[in-house]
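Bumping my old thread because nobody answered last time. Still need a sequence for this structure:
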């Protein structure tokens, strides 16, 4: 059982040495134009040396109107390619494999709100606290092409794969959810219409990167709000995306995701990931709450998922997988305090026992 986490797995054209993914994590490591910084290269150099099966970058926006946060990576223009190439190279230099995650925030952009810019959304939702408007059909098609172009830039920059961010309430989640998509045109009006955006983005991405380049999604397979996307509808959408060209799926939250007890032994998305795995012929992974090797071995042995993703543990220990491979199988040192988010947004200083104290000291050294 304990050897299964370190068995190889193939995703389309690449073979990964083990079943671990570094889940995409926004590090605020880009400059004001979305370009790669030396800090980003340091972070990804450490991850590349960590023996992680696949490193997924923090999200990169496909359009300036889709930027979610400050200091976010950009994949929206050819000008971004040289910097992205250095980022991929930093991971490759350590022997790692890396995917570029790409995103459009839709109406979930604190960054654009702060700038006083009205966001684009599938529909106008009364009471939503970020200014937004319903996009036109032409704007939907522009965004689809933007995803395809960004994926092509990822391939040009030397990434091993691309991952579409179809989770966490961003634009894909907004299109899929009946809570956010009130359209009556071809991009809404029914379950099939609400997932049309997903399918067309995958088709466009696949067209731009060809057949042998891995295309992954981070996917909120269902909503955690009453009246939202059901698990059944989410699985149907995933099935259509796989038919259109998706090679692997990482299951996370949709609209209103409640991460609750994760980090305290709970795996809030495991059941829905297992249900999805039974329905699709591609590798399925799950994120959130994974902190020890025994848990990983158990869920892989039972066949519930094919891969596991970690985020905060790799902030604390970029070399966690190396430690486990070398025989120290004690749990990740991340204490799941969540203070990394508070530091990330500079709301307050972390407690003395938080890994971000160590991380900040390392940055200043």
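Sorry it took so long. Here it is:
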């Amino acid at each position: 059982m304990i050897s299964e986490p370190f068995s190889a797995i193939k995703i389309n054209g690449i073979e990964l040495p083990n079943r671990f993914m570094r889940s995409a994590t926004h590090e605020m490591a880009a400059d004001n134009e979305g370009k790669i910084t030396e800090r980003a290269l340091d972070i990804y150099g450490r991850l590349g040396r960590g023996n992680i099966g696949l490193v997924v970058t923090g999200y990169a926006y496909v359009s300036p109107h889709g930027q979610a946060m400050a200091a976010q990576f950009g994949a929206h223009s050819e000008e971004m390619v040289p910097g992205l190439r250095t980022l991929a190279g930093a991971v490759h230099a350590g022997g790692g494999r890396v995917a570029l995650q790409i995103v459009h925030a839709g109406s979930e952009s604190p960054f654009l709100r702060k700038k006083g810019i009205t966001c684009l959304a599938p529909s106008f939702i009364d009471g939503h606290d970020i200014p937004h408007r319903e996009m036109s059909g032409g704007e939907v098609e522009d965004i689809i092409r933007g995803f395809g172009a960004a994926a092509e830039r990822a391939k040009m920059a030397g990434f091993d794969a691309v991952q579409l961010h179809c989770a966490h309430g961003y634009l894909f989640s907004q299109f899929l959810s009946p809570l956010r998509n009130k359209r009556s045109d071809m991009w809404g009006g029914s379950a099939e219409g609400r997932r049309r955006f997903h399918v067309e983005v995958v088709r466009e991405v696949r067209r731009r990167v060809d057949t042998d380049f891995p295309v992954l999604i981070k996917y909120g397979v269902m909503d955690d709000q009453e009246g939202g996307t059901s698990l059944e509808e989410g699985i149907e959408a995933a099935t259509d995306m796989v038919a259109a060209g998706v090679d692997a799926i990482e299951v996370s939250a949709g609209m209103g995701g409640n991460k609750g007890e994760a980090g305290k032994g709970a795996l809030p998305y495991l059941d829905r990931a297992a249900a999805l795995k039974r329905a699709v012929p591609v590798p399925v992974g799950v994120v959130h709450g994974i902190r020890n090797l025994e848990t990983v071995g158990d869920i892989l042995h039972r066949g519930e998922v094919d891969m596991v993703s970690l985020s905060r543990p790799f902030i604390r220990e970029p070399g966690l997988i190396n430690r486990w491979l070398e025989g120290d199988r004690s749990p990740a040192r991340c204490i799941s305090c969540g203070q990394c988010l508070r530091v990330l947004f500079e709301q307050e200083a972390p407690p003395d026992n938080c890994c971000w104290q160590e991380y900040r000291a390392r940055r200043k050294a």
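Residues 224 and 256 are 5 Å apart (CA to CA). Let me know if any region looks off to you.
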